[in-house]
Amino acid sequence: MIDENFDEFNPELAEKGAGGELHQHEHRQSVINRLARIEGHVRAIKRMVEEDTPCPDVLVQIGAVRSALSSAGRLILEDHLQSCMVEAAKEGDYHQALRDLKNSLDKFID
Amino acid sequence: MIDENFDEFNPELAEKGAGGELHQHEHRQSVINRLARIEGHVRAIKRMVEEDTPCPDVLVQIGAVRSALSSAGRLILEDHLQSCMVEAAKEGDYHQALRDLKNSLDKFID
Fold first, then answer.
1. How far apart are CA B79 and CA A58, in angstroms?
2. Cα distances (Å, whole numbers) of residue B50 to A38, A60, B9, B37, B73
3. Using CB atoms, which residue from A32, A46, A59 is nearest to B77?
4. What CATH code is carried by the domain that includes residue B61?
């Protein structure tokens, strides 16, 4: 699920990336915009079904939304590793944060 | 992607299932309802990101929406095999319909 462009976890880079301020989510606005587009895309697919668009065309669009959701999720994960996990490490909560992340990844990555 | 409850293609059953009328989509309304719920779910996830909900919780919800989309897609596929493909076979368009379906499945099943 994680493609080859996904950077390895590097706390030093993460701190620089956030310009000294931790717990910043670099892709926060991009994720919000993507989710807004995905919401519109799902609404359009519902309309396709209501208008009896050929099933194969509907399936292609459902696949596209699923891919878009995966991409948005990858950005959230990237931000999480670059900021929240670094902050947790600094505060001594890294192991708990890692347990939380692993639990959610079991559900995110199928 | 297709689970064990997915019925095998059976044109005879399909004809009976549609009560004599072909090109009926048994799950049409269910698919529309599911897509409406998915749309609301995506909107709720966008709100979670706007409200800075912990990333692992957001990832779990994205995984849930992706699963819901797959389920809706499976219902569309089931209806397609039970009605559109049967109709195509009767009209002598089965091979073209099969080509269209295979192309879309390449995009739907990743």
1. 12
2. 15, 29, 45, 20, 29
3. A59
4. 1.20.58.1000
- Which residues of chain A from 22 to 41 reach within 8 Å of chain B, CB to CB? 28, 31-32, 35-36, 38-39
**Helix ranges, A6-84 (H):** 11-17, 28-50, 55-79
Q: Which residues of A39-77 are buried (b: 16+ CB within 10 A; e: fewer)?
A: bebbbebbebbeeeeebbebbbbbbebbebbbebbbbbb
Tokens of A51: 């208008």
Within a domain: A39: yes
Q: What is the predicted ipTM?
A: 0.79
Structural domain boundaries enclosing A42: 23-108
pLDDT score recorded for residue B110: 72
- The CA distance from B109 to A17, in Å, is 36
A84 at B interface, C-beta within 8 A: yes
Give the tens place of pLDDT for each residue, B57-88. Answer: 999 999 999 999 999 999 999 999 999 999 99
Would B53 be classed as within a structural domain?
yes
Which tens digits make up the pLDDT trace of A47-76?
999 999 999 999 999 999 999 999 999 999
Contact yes or no for A58 and B66 at CB 8 A: no
| Structural domain count of chain A | 1
